[in-house]
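Lest this sound abstract, we think one record worth quoting, the chain in one-letter code, the fold tokenised, each line plainly labelled:

>
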Amino acid sequence: MPNEAASVSRLGMTFIHMPVDFQNPTDEDFTRFCSAMERLKEVRVHVHCIANYRVSACFYRYRRDVLGTDEAQARADMKDVWHPEGVWATFVAARLDAS
């Protein structure tokens, strides 16, 4: 979206850009995601990516590892959006305590 940061700011929201290389998601990407979620835990948050793939994978891990959501439920919600394969299957299989 052109001028996304300005558009979001005009709506009174804070914009945080977290680029994630679709071909190479890393545990550092997930750690940055968790840090941002921790900083914003007292407010409503809208997280998105162009296809919702990256965000669904990050939310799956966040819900599983940080919030303690039942793994089967977190996985089912992610799979409503997509079924990660390749590097993304590896990314979602990783655990926060292993990063």
